């Protein structure tokens, strides 16, 4: 942490926008990034984020992809318009290749899956064009599968039959999976 904190302290502008609709996560991440030297502004919606960007365009941004009032991609565009040199990281619990491509095309420099460690976020923000190193503790394949099932279940308004149909699995199998705890 000290090496990263020293690098962050050397930055000319440490302003950082953190957008996530999960308040506890947003607060924890904001606090951790502040301890590492950033000056975070924490917001919980697309509208709040766009308003914050109009007040002061941040040098860095960590944005959630899917929010209750829209997509974090709108905020990527707002930050890019206000400050083309800003480094933007997309953060999401439901990572897939299509949304990663969308985020990068919109102007994000990296795309991290939740739960992302604060040090991973800082490394991604400080990366200088090199491909980032693989994470020390990536999600297991079981966890990725479970996250995907949860997302589809949520998109189907918690309808087990519809979720099973979309995932092409038996309804009872899905019910057993949903009854278990999330894998690590």
UniProtKB/TrEMBL annotation:
Gene Ontology molecular-function annotations: phosphorelay response regulator activity; transcription cis-regulatory region binding
Keyword DNA-binding in record: yes
Modification type 4-aspartylphosphate: residues: 64
Highest rank taxon of the organism: Bacteria
Assigned keywords, A-Z: DNA-binding, Phosphoprotein, Transcription, Transcription regulation, Two-component regulatory system
PROSITE patterns listed in its UniProt record: RESPONSE_REGULATORY (PS50110)
Name the UniProt record assigns to this protein: Two-component system response regulator
UniProt source species: Phenylobacterium kunshanense
Record lineage: Bacteria, Pseudomonadati, Pseudomonadota, Alphaproteobacteria, Caulobacterales
